[in-house]
Every structure is written in structure tokens, then in C-alpha cells.
Amino acid sequence: MKRRKSKKRTKRSSNIALLLFFMVLIFVLFDQFKQINIKETAVSLMPNLVSKNVQNYTPLLEKELKEVNLEEYTLVLAAIMQQESKGKGGDPMQASESAGLPPNSIQDPEQSIKQGVKHFQKALNYGSQKNVDFPAVIQAYNMGIGYIDFVAEQGGKHSEEIAKQFSLKQAEKNPEVYDCGGDKNNFRYPYCYGDFTYTPKVTKNIEILTASGTGKNGEYKSVW
User: What is the C-alpha to C-alpha distance for residues 221 and 224, in angstroms, rounded to an integer?
Assistant: First the structure.
């Protein structure tokens, strides 16, 4: 009699253990499915954050970069275009000033891309010569090649604080022009020369473009 009760207890314990195992397994599988679903949903939303114009211009960017053997930077230039104009207007790379012209003087997107690539190449080569990091090169697209010299004097690594210092220095040279339109509530004030937050914005755009699958990003090597 005691043996029968012992067998029943053992069987009941095994059944409970088995039931608990299946419950844990179902919970783990459900949690993994939920995580995958969240990631897929997040990625599917990414293209909505990327301008269709930028996506359309990406092959042209790649073509121009190939001409100077810099095609691995295609997503970087696409991210810069996204930040500059979202691919809108006649000067989607906002490259007029880098050519010594007034803003928006270029009104041909292809010419804008050619000049944007030229400006980026100059910053990249000079950045390598002055031994500064790549974030400084990105910031120089916005603030000009002089920013690279400034960063090199500060140790070679870009930071928001260094970008602020350079911006203020440049703004003080021409306060009537670089005054944020007189708006003291502007987030840049009093650092009204360029955008000291430019590099992290472009970096975020690179992440979005990569996740959205813009271009053949599998062929682009890391630039960081």
C-alpha cells in the first residue's frame, strides 16, 4: 500500500515538474516572439524617417564617390544630405557655401552632389593629414575645414564642447551675421555659427539609413 502511494506521489511530482517545464518554455518562446516582433516593427518604421528623395539620390552619391574611390562613404553622404535638406531643393547637399558661393546658389542637384562630395573629400583628406577623428570630419562638413585645425589643436578628438568653442569663436568674428536670427531661445544661442550638434545628428541618420536598407549597405565597410 505504501509503495502504491509512493508511486502516485512520484508520478504526481513528475507531472507537476513537466507542467512547470512546459509553462516556462511557453513563456520563454512567447517573450522571444514578442522581442522579435518589436524589432521588426521598429525596423519597418525606419524607412518612414528617411526622405524618399535621399533614397533616390543615393545611387548618384555612390556614383560620384566611386569617381574618387570613396564609395564606402555612400551612407555617410546620404546621412549628411538627410540632415542638410532631406534631399529637397536644388542644393540638396547644401554645398554652395563650400564652393565660396552664397547659400542655395547651386540650383542643380547633380552639381550639388558633386560639390558636396568634393567638400567631404577635402575634409576627409585634411582630417587624415591633421590626425583628427572621423566625427571631426563630419562636423567639418557643417562648420568648414577650419574646424579640423581647431580640433587638432585640442588633441584631435571631436566633442560637443569643442564644437561650441569653435562656433562661438567664429560667431564673435561676425556677430551681426551669426546671431541665430536674434532669437535667444534658439537652442544654438549663443553658438550661432553652424550647428554644434551636427555630428550626432548625422550619426543617428547613418543608423536609420542602415536599418532601413537604403542602398547596398552590406557593401559599405565601417567608417568609424
Answer: 9
Grid cell digits, residue 145: 575645414
Q: Which of 97, 76, 91, 68 is nearest to 198 (CA)?
A: 76
State the number of CA atoms in the 13 A half-sphere of 202 facing the CB.
27
CA–CA separation, 159 and 206 (whole Å): 18
Give the position of cell 511557453: 26
Cell 562636423, residue located: 139
Over the stretch 8-46, which tens digit does the pLDDT of each residue have? 555 566 667 666 666 765 665 555 555 544 344 333 344
Q: 82, 209 in Cβ contact below 8 A?
A: yes
Task: Classify burial at 166, counting beta carbons within 10 Å of its beta carbon; exposed 0-12, middle 13-18, buried 19 or more.
Answer: buried
> Residues 58, 93: contact at Cβ < 8 Å?
no
Q: Are the C-beta atoms of residues 214 and 86 closer than 8 Å to each other?
A: no
Q: pTM higher than 0.85 for the full model? A: no
Using 50, 70 and 90 to split pLDDT, how confident is the model at 212? confident
Cα 51 to Cα 10: distance, rounded to the nearest angstrom: 65
Alpha carbon distances (Å) from 114 to 89, 141, 143? 15, 14, 19
Residues 183-196 pLDDT 10s: 999 999 999 999 99
